[in-house]
Amino acid sequence: GNIAVPASAMNTQLNYNLPANQSVVTETVVEFLQVDATEPSQVMGSKHQVSGTYNINAKLCYPVGSAPSASLIQFLTHGVGFDKSYWDFFSAQYSYQDAAALKGYTTFAYDRLGIGSSDHPDAIQVVQAPLEISIAHSLIQMLRSGSLASTPFSKIIGVGHSLGSELTNAITAQYPEDIDAAVLTGFSVDTAGQPSFFSALDLVIASQNQPGRFSRLSNGYLISDTIAGNAFSFFRFPYYDPAVLAAAEASKQTFTIGELF
Questions:
Q1: What is the pTM assigned to this prediction?
Q2: Is the pLDDT of residue 200 over 80?
Q3: Neighbour count for residue 78 (Cβ, 10 Å)
Q4: Number of other CB atoms surrounding residue 251 within 10 Å
Q5: What mean pLDDT value characterizes the chain?
Q6: ∠ CA(11), CA(85), CA(186), 5° rounding?
Q7: How does pLDDT run across 64-95, given as a tens digit for each residue?
Q8: Between vectors from CA 244 to CA 158 and to CA 205, what angle results, nearest 5°?
Q9: Alpha-helical runs (H) found in 54-162
Q10: C-alpha distances in angstroms, 228 versus 162, 198, 245, 248?
Q11: Could you tell me if 124 and 18 are in contact, meaning their C-beta atoms sit under 8 angstroms apart?
């Protein structure tokens, strides 16, 4: 269900207007990725405080047949292009949360701000990494205090994928007392592959690509255009089940221009 999460962070004021159409979005990505790109530095403005209470949709799973444990929980943060279903995906065969439960672990997965069933505020000035870190910090404090499900957890393991790993890693630096250990998947300090990744996604306006799901979102919310782009960015042939790729395409999620910068 939804959790009302208070959060505050120093986001970057971006000197960038909401794109009027797809041509503007495409040109933005081109200018962002081109050799000797100048757009990022031109767009990045001063820091400004963003505060609010945001509805964050989450899923708390206990081991089968066990009473809630007050000792340890895994805090699961998904990456771009997915929501929390990444951790409980497609079938039991591919469910991380099911596998963890069978091993006796409690897990907490959540939709990051601007994703899935969580709130979708301003896609440029609000949904940025600093505020996402603050929201994760607030959720972790709730888990430690027992204000969620009346269960205080004394040990929290941060588990991330891709951008979720970047956010988890940032928490270890910004809030070193928040988590007791970190598991970083789909993560590297080498960013040389990022241009290929973003090019392959072929980012388009989500409300135009998936009007049945995202018609209410502004043009600041983007999504991968095709199943081929998803395959290039997230899968490696032949080491995946084609049914999983098809399911990933059917349930693909947005991310924001604020996260791009």
A1: 0.95
A2: yes
A3: 26
A4: 16
A5: 94
A6: 65
A7: 776 666 689 999 999 999 999 999 988 889 99
A8: 80
A9: 96-102, 129-145
A10: 19, 13, 10, 11
A11: yes
